[in-house]
Amino acid sequence: MPHTPSQTTVLPADELHALAVRALLNAGAPLADAEAIGRVLVQADLFGIHTHGIVRIPQYLERGRLGGLDPAARVHVEQVAPALARVDGANGIGPLVGARALEAAAEGARRAGIGAAFARHSNHFGPVMPYLFQAAEQGFAAIIASNATTTITPWGGREARLGNNPLGIGVPSPGGDPVMLDIALSVVARAKIRRAAAAGDAIPDTWATDAEGHPTTDPDAALAGFLQPIGGHKGYGLSLMIDLFTGLLSEAAYLTHVSSWNVAPERAQDLGHVFILVDTSRLMNAHVLAARMADFAGILHATPPADPAQPVRLPGESELATHRRQSAHGVEVTSADVAALRELAASPV
Amino acid sequence: MPHTPSQTTVLPADELHALAVRALLNAGAPLADAEAIGRVLVQADLFGIHTHGIVRIPQYLERGRLGGLDPAARVHVEQVAPALARVDGANGIGPLVGARALEAAAEGARRAGIGAAFARHSNHFGPVMPYLFQAAEQGFAAIIASNATTTITPWGGREARLGNNPLGIGVPSPGGDPVMLDIALSVVARAKIRRAAAAGDAIPDTWATDAEGHPTTDPDAALAGFLQPIGGHKGYGLSLMIDLFTGLLSEAAYLTHVSSWNVAPERAQDLGHVFILVDTSRLMNAHVLAARMADFAGILHATPPADPAQPVRLPGESELATHRRQSAHGVEVTSADVAALRELAASPV
Description:
2 copies of one chain form a homodimer. By secondary structure, chain A is α+β, with helices and mostly antiparallel strands. Chain A is 40% helix and 18% strand. Chain A has 11 helices and 13 strands. The first copy, chain A, starts with 7 loop residues before the first strand and ends with a helix. The interface between A and B is large, with 82 and 82 residues.
């Protein structure tokens, strides 16, 4: 979903969080759960990932009204081994399931050095970066992923059977900036092809295939076809392995068993997630880690750039700068999104 | 290194393994270590990954003679938490360090549901698939990676500061075929650009940059430049996160601290690896897992193909077919490689 330019409002993150919490309370969520969901979504907005921020709350609650998810769900965590948890999302709001799975994996990692949580019966859990950030704040390196509605074809196929599954990997730097990668495995988002179509531009033949599964430079044919994964068979393989970890091993739905929340908003999606956290304090002390992270970033930043105006950056660097700026000066969100949230927050409890 | 067509010999895997073990014993490796190394390398040949099979033994031992690695090294495993091990490779042969790290991660996973090993002071550990396969045979899902000599530029840079780091992910299917992805993060291997140069063909501008960091379609300019990662900034980010996990968190070398074994074969590389294993039996019983894996493969195999002659396949499928064929009928290796191995195996102990 592209974030189209429109009138914006600047709100302190706390105020945005309070609005989110009231909207979720009004929909039946317990206070602690509403706060956890609000934390993930407001962090998304703080990072500038507005497509996955508080704008999602009206969508989540609309699906709640349609019976597609349960805004009052109680997530159940089962510790099946000292470092391994299975999480039943009970068809709750995705960021709630994500937040609980993150906690369960963190508990395992504190206990055993590494911990994991496999979550099922979940929904769209938002962007990965807020979870990576929360993990990093506690000293955890993290690998986090989810499956998703099918939008891409298996490599060599001509029918969508695989999600454009998000993957996040993060490593903390005590007292400094964590490095956080948050990507999906298509070459580009569909929105970028829509913009090319609107502008009448051809697209590189690596972005998408037509409906028959053949690479195309025609954006209209691409929109009728399928997104291509990065690196062809490599991105296909990565997306597939993510579905095995997040969907199959979690006992969630996978591949075409995942239903689309656009096409069937009234149906449970049964998405799956995996959270793997490593307690870095067991590997080295915080000073050593901080020094190594600073050296690592320094080596990359000192790379001679191909374009002098575009210095080399690390994953998450621009989002962290946005987070810092908006934490200090307020979060810029569209006025329409704030109005929608205020309305939900104002409804009688 | 491309496997150029040449005269080949077919040998039973056992015989190839015995030759490998004798060659390694002659170089001072303890028996159990020689057997572990032989197992990884012969499995590479069984999978048809000959560039990373027994052909490496003469190279490893040549580096041993130059003092670049220690063929008699004793790997040290330190269990720093119930599910977390640090492995000191003691500059041993890479597949030995890999095999010991795999065991350490497996012990943690048996104990705690998930286990990890972070290895340092290592060398090129071969292909990832044999480790994924050994993990899958014991019921473990696995994420395994290594860093490598710098060959690719950070995204937007024009100097190699990052390895084309290998990544493997595997999920077992009890009684059936595991799914195993084993990839590096460049769009193509350098060998493919060399072939285009030899044939006088242009290459897609997504494969490589010239020496200034600009995308090129000229294979000669590409060979003087740098491989491009899959998905541009996404593959850059993935390769970088792998280096953080395998190099930085393991207390191994990372980025430009890794020395090249081609350029300086007499120097220790200090490569790092990470092995993360999940005990799938804690997540679901073997029958359920097998049924879900069969369903998953079935959905993908049934995808209508873009080219009817090229059905959709899963990662590792062709390698497993080669493994089965060569396990039954013998491993096809070049006669020159076998001769080199026989010579090393025949030396007086």
